[in-house]
Fold this protein.
Amino acid sequence: MHYEFTKSLETGHEIIDNEHRMIIQRANEILIAIEEGLSDKKVLEAINTFAKYINTHFPHEEALQEKFFYPNIRFHKLWHQSYTKEIDLTCNRILTEGISNVTIAELKRRIETLIQHILLEDSRVAKHIQSIIKNNEEK
């Protein structure tokens, strides 16, 4: 199973959408590495690239929320912090236990959780930003 950046994942904000596309691409790189039976080292490199990219993306998203006074920014930041810890724990678990059906299933659940977050929460952020921009244009 591979992920696709569909219209339902679009927020309407070009920078965030491009970063979300990259997250999907990084997630797919992990899945492809696993499916193709690449070495554990190659799979771990793909996982680390994914985790690093998330750690780059979240601050960008939070800065945008601050700029537009997103009312649920506190919740969003807490979610980001929690997710970052979870993905780091999963990465560490894979490093210590190795790649197995159990650790890969956990990783896939973490990826799916992030996709759902983009679909549900980030779309709310985008609507808020779009309404602010529209209101400013009407003034």
About this structure: Residues 105 and 111 are 10 Å apart (CA to CA). The longest helix spans residues 101-138.
